[in-house]
Amino acid sequence: MSEMRLHDPAGNRLYLNAEERAAFLAAARRQPARDRTLCETLHFTGCRPSELIEITPARVDLSGGAIAIRSLKKRRDASGRAKLVYRTVPVPPDYLDTLNTAHGIREAQRSRKQAQASIWPLSRVRVWQIVTRIMIEAGIPDAPQRSPKGLRHGFGINAAVNGIPLHMLQKWLGHAQLSTTAIYADATGKEEQDIAARMWG
């Protein structure tokens, strides 16, 4: 398995910085409901596109303010059998209000069949296309960070900059090892300056 990195071999950033994340979110909020909520979910949960398309109304906790996401990286129990692993990620209430209004989450939860249906019945490729198109509209340069992976890494960087404990970020991102999550504590550029500024103040 290749080691996760925040920069490519040429030193190019692989994550969206704070300015790019804000521009992406603003552009997403100008889109039709399906694309807006899809992008907001990736932005606020840090989930992978393959995980996003598995989210159902049953996994949205409107009163608890969280979304349960199934981690799709293979995990094994003590006997070596594959096991299902879910993680719960807290999300902003205004985002949940938008999600509920756009997709009728509360209503769908009353029907077992509707509650188990994907909110975004799309392929991973289609999700990638939607996200990339909106990133272009947001003015994010044609560089390695302009991708859903760049959005996920941006979520991790943002959490680290804002002092989220690594063990909590590990849970939110669905990493099996804390050492994987620790790359976000090695933030660089403006993000590193923001962390260092705590010593200067």
TrEMBL record:
Keyword Metal-binding attributed: no
Domain called Tyr recombinase: residue spans: 11-197
PROSITE patterns to which the protein is assigned, alphabetical: TYR_RECOMBINASE
Top-level taxon of origin: Bacteria
Family annotation (InterPro entries): DNA_brk_join_enz (IPR011010), Integrase-like_cat_sf (IPR013762), Integrase_catalytic (IPR002104), Tyrosine_recombinase_XerCD (IPR050090)
Keyword DNA-binding: yes
Keyword terms: DNA integration, DNA recombination, DNA-binding
Pfam families the UniProt entry points to: Phage_integrase
Family: Belongs to the 'phage' integrase family.
PANTHER family, per the entry: INTEGRASE_RECOMBINASE PROTEIN MJ0367-RELATED, PHAGE INTEGRASE-RELATED
Name this protein carries in UniProt: Site-specific integrase
Organism in which the protein naturally occurs: Paracoccus maritimus
